[in-house]
Design a protein that fits this description.
CATH architecture: 3-Layer(aba) Sandwich
Order of helices and strands: HHEHEHEEEHEHEHEH
Helix content: 25-40%
Shape: globular
CATH topology: Rossmann fold
Largest sheet: 8 strands, mixed
Distance between the termini: 53 Å
Oligomer: single chain
Structural class: alpha/beta
Length: about 260
């Protein structure tokens, strides 16, 4: 069997068994919502914006803050920026935000770098397995996978360069996230100045609160609930396989819109 290579100007590679490859060339890409607005206007439209002062007050007073908010409210992108603007990244300190998946770490870091107005890898960076796009001297907000932060504890057991560590998507309870919860609890005994943020998209945050609350420090943790979301999220499944998933998704979205 001879191998065939794709040439520019010819039909793109694909399998005609499960989809019509010709229709994929006519897909229209739409700009994201509010793309015509300025970066600052887009940030102010997020539901988390009205909780900014409350979040900064709680992180100053409490050692552990459990943030509960729906997907799309702006926890991942805005909270590290609020902390940097409030001075938590001064004097060489770094604000870390862990993600359970590599794609999330890279994409969110790119978005935050755009909002901050810096190149990716300068003031805002990310580090994942086999790839480190950050600068040890200039990076102030660092997104990483939870596994990379756990690896760093082997070199620096107290994670001394971080002033705030945010464990995002903690409700997924991945292996490294659970390990970090235990390690960071011990680190805070040696470094009470270290602030920990546990971010969750579910309302079951009392287990995190009970874990970080002890008899000697009953007021060391607090739950902050963020009300509101940018858009309603509902999952719709197709009952059977479709040859053109793009048209099927568009048709389903249209039917849902008509029913609403």
């Amino acid at each position: 069997m001879s191998l065939k290579f794709w040439k520019p100007g010819t039909a793109g590679p694909g399998s005609s068994l499960d989809r019509d490859t010709q229709t994929e060339e006519n897909v229209v890409q739409c700009a994201p919502a509010y793309s015509s607005l300025s970066i600052q206007s887009q940030r102010e439209r997020l539901p988390i914006y009205k909780h900014r002062e409350k979040l900064l007050y709680c992180i100053e007073k409490y050692g552990v803050m459990i943030v509960v908010g729906q997907t799309g409210c702006g926890k991942t992108t805005q909270l590290p920026q609020y902390l940097m603007e409030a001075g938590w990244a001064s004097e060489g300190n770094v604000i870390a935000c862990t993600q359970p998946r590599r794609v999330a770490a890279t994409s969110v870091a790119g978005r935050v770098a755009t909002e901050v107005g810096s190149l990716l890898g300068d003031e805002v960076g990310y580090t994942i397995r086999f790839e480190d796009v950050s600068d040890k001297q200039r990076t102030r907000i660092l997104y990483m996978t939870d596994g990379m932060l756990f690896r760093e504890t082997l070199v620096d057991p107290l994670l001394s360069r971080y002033s705030v560590i945010m464990l995002d998507e903690a409700h997924e309870r991945s292996l490294y996230t659970d390990l970090l919860l235990g390690v960071l609890k011990k680190i805070r005994r040696k470094r009470p100045s270290l602030r920990l943020i546990v971010s969750s998209a579910t309302l079951d945050a009392t287990s995190f609160l009970d874990y970080f609350t002890s008899a000697t420090s009953p007021d060391d943790a607090i739950i902050v609930s963020l009300e509101g979301r940018m858009f309603p999220v509902e999952v719709a499944y197709s009952q059977q396989p479709v040859p053109d998933y793009v048209m099927a998704a568009a048709k389903t979205a249209f039917e849902i819109n008509v029913k609403v």
